Amino acid sequence: MADITEQASDTVEAWLKQDSAIDPQKAPRLQALLDEVPLQELIAIVERQNAIRAALALRLLPRRKSIVVFDALDAKHQADIIDELGNADVYEFFDELEPEDRVALLDELPAEIADRLLRSLTKSKRDVTGVVLGYTKGSVGRRMSPEVPGIHPEMSVEEALRTLRAKADELETIYAVPITRADRRLVGVVTLREIFTAEEGTTIGDIMQSPIYANANDDAEETARWFLPLDILALPIVDDSDRLVGLLTWDDAIDIVEAEDSEDSARAGGTEALQQPYLSTPLLKLVKSRIVWLLVLAVSALLTVRVLDAFEDTLAQAVVLSLFIPLLTGTGGNTGNQAATTVTRALALGDVRGRDLLAVLWRELRVGMLLGAVLGLAGLGLATVVYGVDIGLVIGSTLFLICSISATVGGLMPIVAKTIGADPAVFSNPFISTFCDATGLIIYFLIAKSVLGL
Amino acid sequence: MADITEQASDTVEAWLKQDSAIDPQKAPRLQALLDEVPLQELIAIVERQNAIRAALALRLLPRRKSIVVFDALDAKHQADIIDELGNADVYEFFDELEPEDRVALLDELPAEIADRLLRSLTKSKRDVTGVVLGYTKGSVGRRMSPEVPGIHPEMSVEEALRTLRAKADELETIYAVPITRADRRLVGVVTLREIFTAEEGTTIGDIMQSPIYANANDDAEETARWFLPLDILALPIVDDSDRLVGLLTWDDAIDIVEAEDSEDSARAGGTEALQQPYLSTPLLKLVKSRIVWLLVLAVSALLTVRVLDAFEDTLAQAVVLSLFIPLLTGTGGNTGNQAATTVTRALALGDVRGRDLLAVLWRELRVGMLLGAVLGLAGLGLATVVYGVDIGLVIGSTLFLICSISATVGGLMPIVAKTIGADPAVFSNPFISTFCDATGLIIYFLIAKSVLGL
């Protein structure tokens, strides 16, 4: 199978890239080809196209398939594509989305289009969408499925099965079942598997377990992170009076975590996240995602010019000192990055929390000193052989101090950011490099001046 | 609820940190406290403890809870903890793991312990574990659940429901059901929901859909990445004759992706992934995860010393040139990092593939030139005001060239790595910085020599 479909998908991509693909004569052949491509490959192809070509592909696909593909795209990409689709298509795609995906798409659209789309829904669909829209961005409520099954503890398992069967079409999941009392208060959870394998005659109350749940106003990322490792299919979401308002399903939790990981990864490299696939991102959006950071970093780097300016006399007396500037600042930056990357990831995963500040400080200081001892001895040896013992001593002791300080600062910065309510990844690797550069240079010249007696 | 459990979990952590917690007199109180802490919080607490304290907490927990907690830990952490547990506990924890989790743990254990544990299993459990062990590391087969339900197309939905009910205990999932012929060939898939809502009297063959599946020898990361966005609960895995051998469940797919993202994130910062929570990682393991990279990078940075050495005369004639070294190399490194981070993430997500090399080259060249134009003009202006028009011209044109080259090289390196079969993240940010440093310095001095006539 693999060979034929790979050929088909290559051909489809090549055709989409030529404008001639829009040629109505070729459309039927492209359509036939698209039909041969398996679903996961179709999604991958459409993800890589810009909005015009993605819209073309979606129009050529059989309706059921195009809805599944559209559903799998990022909300930003969906919003771009909507601009290129006819109204009828747009209304249908929008109608078929889950309420929480509909809200994610609305967030990316201009207000008047969002309004028009909302008005195109039936009243009941508009109502469930409204529930999700009522919660603030970044909260669990904004990402939950607002449809709940209404299963009560006093129901027999047979009754529960009948109810789930009857409501299966409107529910996003029937596998993880929250149990509520008549006043909608959450009292338990049960899986379809448990209902299914229970003895006849048992009630739901007999087999339900005490619920693990979250509040609709909780942070979406934090909730998704602790919920996923529990291997539960859906997490009940309650309001402040413990009344069930929705479910966070595993697939929505994955989307949340994936988006946050992409954002952390982007920030670590000193860019903003694209929020859509690289190849379908317009060129100017790429520039925009990078230029602000680059300018901020360049301005911070002016600090290093200032530091060096202050030591210009020392430099003029011993030009040899300038040879080691990139090596020393680089090593400091690298050590700081290593610590920052490790701690930022640990914060994201919840392995480290704000109150662990002192524990991290103490770990990173010791790690930095050990790394500094190894590099410092290597530097001492090498520099002594080539440039003499004085330069050797300067380089060795500078490396030791730079590593100790950079690891400590790099490890603490993400925690400090989190404590003051900023994104830990804001202190990105480039930012820490720049900070370590300036500190490292000051240490370097102070040591050089005292050792060389300048 | 939140306040009481937060207090309880704080107290538990504080107690575990004191060695006196092992005091048998205090154990019952710790046990009582542990019982108040919700499951997700228990997992978070145990994840943060070193092996000795984690083993203590696991021993104090009620057996069912401790099994769930142990199951949620990373395999590396599990292996450390096993050293600290009594044999009876170890055998029971090991026995309760899913076959694929058992294999992940075995991979982290010394051969003789792994052997002993395997021999402690019943024959049927040893056999299913053996199926998974038979596939190479990094393949889907190594991560799949080897239990399959044996549902055939000619079965009625009632028969299928009865079969699933009977086998529910041994199956990891009954929600996504692969359909096989008598010779075990995969012919379709159906969800429990579809079986459940089907009309009486229909056969499985009537309602099953054509299967999306993977081969057991496929790469685990790639498969998990394309499978998760499809929002399917389990992916059928087949052997080379299209016979069903297992299922990749959504929770195992998440573990695979999470581990790979942690590895990419670590590499981007120039370290090796810890594969276990930061605070429970021994100090020397932290040093080990960083020192090799740091030494490699320091050795590559010797290149910059060589470049500067070659231009020492130029530097001696115009010491002012040395003031800009960190600014210029830093900007080059940042631009390269931005491109590398973006493309590495796009490769991991499958948005960019090897054959997109030219498309990426062309995008990054244009992005780099645009970034370089902005920074170059800013540099030209600022440097001219402070240091005169000659230096201004040198800085401006160097920034333009450095940005153009760094973005292009930074964008291509991950793709080149992938094409030659290496991990794209091996060309980490620090590595690209070091490369950009050396290139940038050469450009800088060549331009300076020709503009200043040195």
- The chain-level structural class of chain A is mainly alpha
- Biggest interface, which chains? A-B, 108 and 107 residues
Largest sheet of chain A: 3 strands, mixed
Mean pLDDT across the residues of chain A is: 89
Tell me the strand order in the biggest sheet of chain A.
3-4-5
Count the beta strands of chain A: 5
Quaternary class: homodimer
- Give the CA-based shape of chain A: globular
Determine the number of helices of chain A (DSSP H or I, runs of at least 4 residues): 21
The radius of gyration of chain A is 29 Å
Write structural notes for this entry.
- 2 copies of one chain form a homodimer.
- By secondary structure, chain A is mainly α.
- The first copy, chain A, has helices spanning 2-17, 27-36, 39-48, 51-60, 63-72, 75-82, 87-96, 99-108, 111-119, 123-133, 157-167, 192-197, 204-207, 220-227, 250-268, 283-310, 312-317, 325-349, 357-387, 389-419, 429-452, and strands spanning 176-180, 186-191, 214-215, 234-238, 244-249.
- Helices cover 65% and strands 5% of the residues of chain A.
- In chain A, helix 18 runs parallel beside helix 20 and helix 18 runs antiparallel to helix 21 (429-452).
- The termini of chain A are far apart.
- Chain A is globular and about 90 Å long.
- Chain A has a 3-stranded mixed beta sheet with strand order 3-4-5.
- The mean pLDDT of chain A is 89.
- Chains A and B meet through helix 3, helix 12, helix 15, helix 16 and helix 17 of A and helix 3, helix 12, helix 15, helix 16 and helix 17 of B.
